[in-house]
C-alpha cells in the first residue's frame, strides 16, 4: 500500500506543479509585470525547474511501477506506464526540444536591443504555440494519470 500511495503522491506533485506554473504563475507574471522580457525570463526559469521536476517525478514513477503490488492489475499498470511515458515525452519534446530554439530567438533579440524582427517574432510565435500545445497535452495526460492512480487506492 505504501508504494501505491507514493505513486499517487509523486504524480500529484508532478501534475500539480505543472498546472500551477503553466496556468497560474506564468499568466500572472505576464499580467502583472509591465516588462514582458522580465516576465518571460522568470517564466522560462520556472519552466526549467518544472521540466527537471517532471523528469525526476517521471523516472521515480517508472521505477515505482517496476515494483508490483498485490492490487496491481496488468491492464491498469500498462495504462499507467503509457501515461507516464507520454508525459515524459512531452517534457523532452517541449522543454529539451522546442525551448532551446525559443531561447536562441530571445538571445538574438536581447543582443539587438530586445526587439525581435518580423520573421523572428513569427517563428517565436509558432514555437510558443507548439510548446503550449505540448504543455496542454501533458496537462491532460496528467489528469488521466491521477484519475487512473486513484483507482488503485
Automatic annotation (TrEMBL):
The chain crosses the membrane at residues 7-26, 46-67, 79-98, 126-147. It comes from the Bacteria. Residues 9-108 form the TMEM205-like domain. Keywords: Membrane, Transmembrane, Transmembrane helix. GO terms for cellular component: membrane. It is found in: Membrane. Pfam families: DUF4149. This is DUF4149 domain-containing protein. It comes from Glaciimonas soli.
Amino acid at each position: 500500500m505504501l508504494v501505491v500511495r507514493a505513486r499517487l503522491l509523486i504524480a500529484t506533485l508532478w501534475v500539480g506543479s505543472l498546472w500551477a506554473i503553466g496556468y497560474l504563475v506564468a499568466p500572472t507574471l505576464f499580467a502583472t509585470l509591465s516588462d514582458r522580457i522580465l516576465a518571460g525570463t522568470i517564466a522560462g526559469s520556472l519552466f526549467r525547474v518544472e521540466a527537471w521536476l517532471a523528469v525526476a517525478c517521471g523516472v521515480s514513477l517508472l521505477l515505482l511501477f517496476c515494483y508490483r503490488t498485490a492490487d496491481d492489475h496488468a491492464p491498469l499498470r500498462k495504462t499507467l506506464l503509457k501515461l507516464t511515458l507520454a508525459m515524459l515525452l512531452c517534457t523532452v519534446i517541449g522543454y529539451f526540444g522546442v525551448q532551446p530554439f525559443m531561447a536562441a530567438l530571445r538571445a538574438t533579440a536581447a543582443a539587438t536591443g530586445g526587439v525581435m524582427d518580423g520573421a523572428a517574432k513569427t517563428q517565436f510565435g509558432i514555437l510558443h504555440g507548439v510548446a503550449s500545445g505540448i504543455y496542454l497535452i501533458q496537462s491532460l495526460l496528467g489528469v488521466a494519470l491521477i484519475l487512473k492512480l486513484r483507482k488503485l487506492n
